[in-house]
Design goal:
This protein has 176 residues and is mainly alpha-helical. It folds into two domains: 56 residues; 80 residues, no CATH class. The protein has seven helices and four strands. The strands form two sheets. Strands 1-2 form a two-stranded antiparallel ribbon. A hairpin with a 5-residue loop joins β1 and β2. α1 packs antiparallel against α2. The relative contact order is 0.05.
Length: 176
């Protein structure tokens, strides 16, 4: 039993002299988790940042720059930014499907706007008025061809959808 006490005292002394837990473990043969538990119980456990700082000062980090602050020149930052922008340009699609099923632009002057609305505005040569909406004739929100889009007033659009729902309910009721 005295052997364990001596190892514990030696481990504590080694740790307090500046050695890390892995180094103390290798020196004494005591498991890292056991050392961490004992040092915590004794109130001498260092914080992670202190441990990393200590290892960096002693050149014991796996990476030469870990734990050190890096500074970059303005030119370097600009090149990184240009590189990211070029990669985005090469891989960006320009449109994406929203959760409500409509397709919207994700880039360019119409970013954030629905594709079907922009298509109708280009066809009309003007922006839509607040009381106007674009209706997909075949019901497919991804089909934004000019032949499939119709301009409606808000009330007319609501009326059109109620009529479509009524027809669908009658077909389901009749078993067709």
């Amino acid at each position: 039993m005295s052997r364990g006490i001596n190892k514990d005292i030696t481990a504590s002394d080694l740790y307090q002299s500046g050695m890390s837990i892995p180094e103390v473990s290798k020196e004494t043969g005591i498991a890292r988790s056991t050392l961490r538990f004992r040092f915590k119980r004794q109130g001498i456990l260092r914080s992670r940042s202190d441990g990393v700082r200590n290892a960096g000062e002693r050149g014991r980090l796996g990476s030469a720059m870990r734990g050190k602050t890096r500074t970059f020149s303005a030119t370097h930052c600009q090149r990184i930014s240009e590189s990211k922008r070029a990669a985005a340009e090469a891989t960006a699609v320009g449109t994406s499907a929203r959760t409500d099923g409509y397709v919207e632009y994700t880039r360019g002057p119409h970013k954030g706007r629905s594709v079907h609305v922009v298509a109708m505005e280009e066809r009309l040569g003007r922006r839509l008025r607040p009381d106007e909406v674009v209706h997909h004739i075949d019901g497919d929100k991804h089909n934004n061809s000019h032949d499939n889009l119709a301009l409606c007033t808000r009330s007319g659009h609501a009326r059109l959808h109620r009529r479509e729902e009524k027809i669908a309910r009658q077909e389901n009721h009749n078993g067709q």
